[in-house]
Fold this protein.
Amino acid sequence: MPEIEERAVKSTEIEAEETSAKAIAPEDAGNDVAASNRSVGEGRRFHPLVELVRARAREFLREPEVTFWVFAFPILLVCALGLAFRNTGPEKVQIAVERSDANVAASNALVDALSRSSDVVVTALSSDEARKALRNGKVALVVAPKKETQGIGLSSSFDYRYDPTRPESRQARLVVDDALQRAAGRSDVVSASDETFTEPGARYIDFLIPGLLGMNLMGSGLWGVGFTVVNSRMRKLLKRFAATPMRRSHYLLSFVLSRLMFLVLEVGVVIAFAWFVFGFRVRGSFLEMSFVLALGGLTFAGIGLLVAARPRTIEGVSGLMNLVMMPMWLLSGTFFSSARFPEFLQPFIKALPLTALNDSLRGVMNDGTSMMTNWGAICVLLTWCVVSFLVALKIFRWQ
């Protein structure tokens, strides 16, 4: 907000006047400076870095749009994706049996045999209907009988039609074949029993929460810092700040520290909602989780400063922000595992800061392991944090 920046500039200008007064009359200026200190703000003077951090915090709180994207939007994502991918047990396999005038008896026998299986939902369709249902994904497998046999009424020969690139189709083929073989009288040579259990942290919502926290830290760090810096540059406020005795590192550091101020609320709201609605639990150390989150917040605030170091327009910084974040949105494993990508992409994916943050958070929150188990990811975050801030300080444009 303009009034926030103006107040911060006035504060640094007052400091410049006091410094000049001390240089001219060191002994007599003490009382005058002390008196002016009592008249500034609410009766107290703070370190310039503290004043800048307070200005950043007030600016954040006075923007309702930012508050929505930081606090409300992640909760909406958790709610929508958690409901869409909730664990309701394995779904029954959708199967079509091809029926025609030439194989009515065989298709009826297949439908009857498959209907006895609790894992299958079977529908009799014509050849064209079955092919269309398979193409549209409404069924995972089509069973097409060839000729009838005597006695059991099942076809002695039939085709399994499915798309081998679809995992559910390959699973359907195994389930249907087992059901038909049992209906035909097959007996198991080796007996086995099932022992089922649910491992904590194995649900999709458990995988999703750390990824959403990482994505939220990335978005708030880059967009929150980048837009504010470029907006100040466009309004010539950076030039006025640069003319004061304020250390330039203090100005850049204020953005990083202000992000940490809201980190507790930003993360706490999402975790509390996931715990209350979906029963999410943090299995590891809260202290180590807090360290990883703080490091991630610092890292993306530093990257935000680096991206905003040179652009002079909102359009320019928006393009750079999207260019930086797009690979991380797609590759860093926020909504699905990054291990699905080809092997030759894995070194690049592991070097992305969001990948390192997501892997570290999932290790602590879901697996309950020490953050040093993923020491490589921690080193990636530290490197991005330090290098981005130092480079931003070096190339930052104040004009």
User: Anything to note?
Assistant: Residues 46-83+203-395 form one domain.
